[in-house]
Amino acid sequence: MRRTMRRRDRPPSTYRLVVCVSLLLVGCRAGWIDPDTPEEARTTSPGKIVPNLPPPNPKHGGRDDDDGKTKRRGGHRRDPTQTPTFYPTYDPTGVPSSAPSTATQSPTSPKRIYDLVFSDEFNSPRRTFEDGADPRWTALEKNDYTNDAQHYYSTKNAFTDDEGNLVIKSEATDTSIVGFNDVKLEKERVTKHFKSAMLQSWNKFCFTGGVLEAEIALPGRHDVGGLWPAFWLLGNLARHTYVGSSEHVWPWSSSVCTDKSRTAQLISACDRVQHYGLHKGVGRGAPEIDVFEVQSGPIRAGTGEFLKMPVGQPFMSSSYQVAPGRLPRPGTGWWPAPWQWYSNLTGGMNTSLNIAFYGTYNHFLDDTDPAGQDYWSDAISYNRQLDSSHFGKYHRYRLEWELPDKEGNKENNFTETFGYIRWYLDDEFVLEVKGEGLNASGTGGEISSEPMYMLLNTAISSQWGFPMCPAECPCETYDCHGGFQETCGFSEGFCDMLSKPAEYKINWVRVYQDKNDPKQKLGCSTKERPTRKFIEAHEEKYMQAGDAHPLKPIRKGGGKCSLTPPTNKTVPESCGGVSHGACSPATKPPSCTCTEGWTGSHCMNPVGYDDVVWDPPETFADLGFWGPSLSGGMGILKVVGALAGALLVAPLVLKTGRRRMDGYRSVPDYERRL
């Protein structure tokens, strides 16, 4: 395999040599590692799977009240069954079931080691993430049109504080925008009454397979619904909130040619044209893996909306969202009948299959053939019970993602494997989704092999954690500063909670991969799953009106600074301090000049780059064209002769080409479909 290197904004070779020697076991993949990451965090091992076992000396037997005291209710835990049944099991047993587990057993010997390949410790205060500021993350400055969003995403609501945290701030503040009315099919000026933030690593940092972990303190209160904090992954072919990039792409993960995929999947295994660098016969999409989506609120297990579930609010929902969806499928709020949902699902303690949401029916306004183009997507999801300690206090959230392998390897006698996804909270097992269950479903869905990027955000949506619309309340506008008609649809205490901003805090984010597994890669466009050419050919789907390109180049220095900044302070005025940069008097006004290893206009952001670029932009040399020598008259004659010959041969080539395209979809037709 040819591995083409491209220099980016990276440290000098001497610095890289030191890093590579110190990280020899990592295979010298240090381009995304924050130098502040402690040595003990440079490796990790697979978590343990303990399905449905109660913890020793359980601390919680019921709800957590505001005073922090635990009150027992009935004296029994409610443990769900390991695999879905028609009705949930509410009566706990003294010992776990002796039925065999479908969970993948963690390896015992040899112990698998994952090496650190990405980290962000967020230790530089007052770091910002607007477009062009950071090589890892981009904070959005745009309206969110998805999921009945009540918020506007602002770059100013994402920053690092003085305590080494990334902060996503949600507040009740107005933003006037020009939006598109889906009913009137026209633009109109609207006001969003909430402001929040979303960070994406889209088209900057992506990974395929491995371990993702973060230490996080959730925003708001555990018993007041309305905030929607999330930590998740999405395939690089779709950019969230840029809805045009997601149509017929989200959340497809299938490489099987069917009548449905032929018409409903934008890039399907039925396609016989290799265009934009995509591989013939390989279905593509943007599946979604939710490390968590958290819903707070006062509704407890066995009551109200959670009457049939052993997990209530507050909870974290961990999901794999994939298309195409199953048919027939369970009804919302009902436990699935045998063979009606996926097999090979294993939940941990204090978890339940999420029967409140099985997925989405996807229809798009510009589709002309709803019967063929509409499709179901599935949310394979479990809810895990949370309590008041998860809000405002730090906990570790972890995802393990093993890729499918059609060829197998020597260790498993070259047997096909189907991959898995596992979730953990503070090292306690939450859920495993095995690829065998997707394979057995007959939909063609599979565990994702797409390069996926990270997202961190807090949304405010009337679809999530808001109460059922009360009588005599229009529930059309939600505004904490309005009158009765604008405030009656909120959860009790929501506006009081947002009388000061709610802060979602992330202490660090880290990604690990197995250096002995060649399937696990870094990069947003890999050899197996390229995305670069497709995105470049459809840039308008990934950017807003007025943007020249979806992402701006990363600035290195140039920010205004002070020649007499606070001593040894890591602040923008000092260009990050002596280790990050310096304030140069050579410019008027003085501006920052960054040292190697730091970037951004004020040198506050650590550099980041892929050590191996799997899909670099082509040059003429890559295409095998070196250009003729024009020295002397003979060189010019050769060029003229070559051009004349090409013009004479062109009609024959086109005629032959048309014959070879018989039975294939033509490129113009393919373009219209895109």
Write up this protein.
By secondary structure, this protein is α+β, with helices and mostly antiparallel strands. The protein is 11% helix and 23% strand. The protein has nine helices and 30 strands. The longest helix is centred in the last third of the chain and has 29 residues, at 632-660.
Kindly summarize this structure in a few lines.
11% of the residues lie in helices and 23% in strands. By secondary structure, it is of the alpha+beta class.
The rounded Rg comes to 27 Å
Low-confidence stretches: 1-29, 54-100, 621-633, 649-674
Strand content: 15-25%
Biggest sheet architecture: 11 strands, antiparallel
Number of helices: 9
Structural class of the secondary structure composition? Answer: alpha+beta
Q: Termini distance?
A: 31 Å
Mean pLDDT: 83
Helix content: 10-25%
Please state the overall shape, judged from the principal axes of the Cα atoms.
globular
Query: How many β-strand stretches?
Result: 30
